[in-house]
Design a protein that fits this description.
With about 700 residues, the chain is mainly β. It is about 5% helix and about 45% strand. Strands 29-30-35-36-34-31 form a 6-stranded antiparallel β-barrel. The longest helix is centred in the middle third of the chain and has 10 residues, at about 385-395. The radius of gyration is 33 Å and the shape is elongated. The relative contact order is 0.13.
């Protein structure tokens, strides 16, 4: 076992923030907002004890607060939506603020001046949208439901709207997380648009995604775990900078998506978007030998519903979103011809001499050089050909089906990508002091990508995000908000072949039962027009996943002009991966002249002689990666409203990243518990024989 110096990592962050701003500040890194303000009389004196009623226009559920000695009222944990505000006090006319919007992580300030009069009289206060957020110094932008649902989105992917926010730059500052089908990709409709911007110049892998205040981030790619259904998005906010202790754990942007809740009215919708080759022109580069475009089908469709289960009490919303995508690959290949597979390279496209490695000897005229004899007429004798590799190439490499000076095969089978996504959300008002919600979202995607007409890769993903929350009001000044959830997108990658595994065993390859795979790779010119070298075979299923658990309780206490808040956040990130496989790689060198390396020899000839340049075999158990990292943070803060225009916020936060907890042997790498670099897991492998 090889060891390096022990390194003990205990990452943490302590942050103390003191700042001054205008109005009261935003409460909580949850998927809620707030409303506050000051009530005064015509002489601008504060009115204590006035009754303030905040009513949700969709559900008719209202909350009531009393102004304090300074005439200040505060509503926290307000669900995003449309609201009205009414203020009542004996001796004054009622003041009413007509419908206004409360956004996610956004605090609305409504200062009201009451007029002297009877309680049966009312004055409507005409408000207007704030051009500058008066209640917080945080930088961020809310993308409204109207923008989300009305702006055109290629593939109905909300991330395209991220660049509408100031400070979001569509320039990748890190490893790309483009649309694809592995654990380093973002899963979305093929060839649609996706944005993973840098927020205020930060690394774009340092952003984090929330769905209803529950983590929706795949920490392998740092993109979303599943794609929210656009018609079920209430709104979302991109928060790019903050100065409060309740925030932590991320240096980039916070993208908080809020799903739509039901209301007292029933609503529904349905949609379908269609693209196919009927609307397309022929591509002269990839479809040059066709009279019409390749058959292409893309259908994206779905439906939503929302309404009351019990009016003014229990509400439901949900929907379905899916797509069907079919498009031929059209990749051109150079595959071994029957003549080449028989050992005859006299007319091979490689146009090189191949040499017999068994004739390798020292050059009598130069002791530092070697010589080899070429095969006569560039033909390998049948007696020298390995029946294992020749049988493999005949069975697993694609046949010739195309005529071209460079390429002799075309992938005419289509890429198929299908998705089915579901979501349901239930909100329930148990009584005046208790409410809760539950949401289940899923995204089930399958993709088949042919690499030839006989083989390819298959991707299966079953992503889900489960969230729930409760709100308990101990008193009008003491409120507990708890939310938590689970996010995961487990998937399996399978390299399939129409012949299956059975021919490998029949040909005499050993260890197939252990590796459940077998592949052979060649060098160019046996390759695709995409530039990748040609390989063929069948692979074992490779399951992977990154499940994340999260929990976040927050307690708010409003006392006088002070708003105290304390909370805790716990996140457990798992990494699961099994990657068995068996691959033989062949290169030109074994059949090249030592004097003409790079100008002679052929990898296919080396394969027919059974001379691999390297061999890699990994069993499922040896390739298993299974570990988790627990991350937690605590904070306490006080927002002190000194006057209607000045608020001072102080806070303290502590974040901690635990050591990695390894649940199985890692095949090669660092032991996070000891700080040692280990080879062969915890013990050295047995000697080779």
């Amino acid at each position: 076992m090889e060891k390096q110096q022990h390194i003990d990592f205990t990452p943490f962050l302590i942050a103390m923030v003191v700042f001054c701003g205008c109005g009261s500040c935003l409460f909580g890194q949850a998927a809620t907002g707030g409303v506050n303000g000051t009530v005064t009389d015509p002489a601008k004196a504060s009115i204590p004890g006035a009754t303030v009623i905040l009513k949700n226009r969709g559900t008719n559920i209202d909350n009531t607060a009393l102004t304090n000695a300074s005439g200040v009222f505060t509503f926290i944990n307000v669900q995003p939506g449309q609201y009205t505000l009414t203020v009542r006090d004996p001796g004054f006319k009622n003041a009413e603020v007509p419908e206004f919007t409360v956004g996610v992580n956004q605090t609305v300030t409504e200062d009201l001046s009451l007029s002297i009069g009877g309680v049966n009289e009312s004055v409507v206060v005409q408000g207007q949208a704030e051009l500058v957020q008066m209640s917080s110094t945080e930088l961020g932008s809310v993308i409204s439901q109207h923008a989300v649902q009305q702006l055109p989105l290629n593939g109905r992917n909300f991330t395209q709207l991220l660049t509408l926010t100031p400070g979001a730059t569509p320039v990748s500052t890190s490893q790309s997380a483009s649309i694809g089908t592995n654990d380093g990709n973002t899963v979305a409709l093929p060839n649609s648009s996706y944005s993973n911007p840098s927020i205020h110049g930060q690394w774009n892998r340092s952003s984090i995604y929330y769905l209803d205040g529950v983590i929706n981030t795949d920490f392998r790619t740092t993109t979303y775990t599943l794609l929210p259904e656009i018609d079920l998005v209430q709104e979302f906010k991109v928060q790019s900078h903050n100065d409060k202790a309740e925030y932590g754990g991320v240096t980039g942007g916070i993208i908080n998506v809020v799903s739509r809740s039901g209301s007292n009215e029933f609503h529904g919708s349905a949609f379908e978007f269609v693209r196919n080759d009927f609307f397309n022109a022929r591509d002269s580069f990839t479809e040059g030998k066709r009279n019409s475009p390749f058959p292409f089908r893309q259908n994206q469709f779905g439906a939503t519903f929302s309404g009351p289960i019990f009016k003014n009490k229990t509400f439901v919303s949900g929907g379905y979103d899916g797509w069907r995508y079919t498009k031929p690959i059209g990749t051109l290949l150079r595959v071994p011809t029957p003549q080449e597979i028989s050992g005859d390279f006299s007319n091979s496209i490689i146009a090189r001499s191949i040499y017999d490695p068994t004739t390798t000897r020292q050059d009598p005229n130069n002791p530092n050089a070697l010589l080899r004899d070429p095969f006569m007429n560039n033909i390998i004798p049948a007696s020298r050909i390995s029946p294992l590799t020749q049988g493999f190439i005949k069975t697993y490499f694609p046949p010739v089906n195309y005529s071209d000076p460079t390429y002799n095969a075309i992938v005419s089978d289509p890429q198929i990508n299908n998705d089915n996504g579901w979501q349901i959300k239930i909100d329930h008002q148990l009584n005046g002091n208790n409410s809760g919600w539950f949401r289940y979202s899923s995204m089930n995607t399958t993709q088949v990508t042919p690499s030839s007409n006989v083989q390819g890769s298959q991707f299966e993903m079953k992503a889900q995000n489960i969230g729930a929350g409760i709100l308990h009001i101990f008193s009008p000044s003491l409120i507990l908000d708890v939310r938590g959830g689970f996010a995961s997108r487990p998937f399996t990658i399978i390299s399939y072949h129409t012949a299956g595994l059975a021919p490998l065993t029949q040909l005499g390859f050993a260890g197939i039962d252990q590796f459940q795979a077998g592949n052979i790779g060649l060098q160019t010119p046996w390759a695709s027009n995409a530039g990748s070298a040609l390989s063929a075979g069948v692979g074992a299923p490779q399951p992977r996943g990154n499940p994340v658990w999260s929990l976040s309780p927050n307690l708010s206490w409003i006392r006088g002009n002070h708003n105290f808040k304390t909370g805790f956040q716990w996140i457990d990130v798992n990494r699961l991966q099994i990657s068995p496989g068996l691959t033989y790689n062949f290169q030109d060198d074994p059949t090249a002249s030592p004097q003409l390396m790079g100008k002679s020899g052929a990898s296919l000839a080396s394969a027919l002689l059974g001379l691999p340049s390297n061999y890699t075999g990994t069993q499922a158990k040896a390739s298993t990666i299974d570990f988790d990292i627990a991350i937690w943070g605590v904070y306490a803060q006080d927002e002190w409203k000194i006057s209607p225009n000045i608020t001072v916020t102080t806070g303290l936060r502590f974040d901690h990243v635990n050591h990695v907890d390894v649940h199985s042997l890692m095949n090669n790498g660092p032991n996070m518990l000891t700080g040692n670099w280990e080879i062969g897991a915890t013990t050295n492998p047995p000697p080779c024989n």
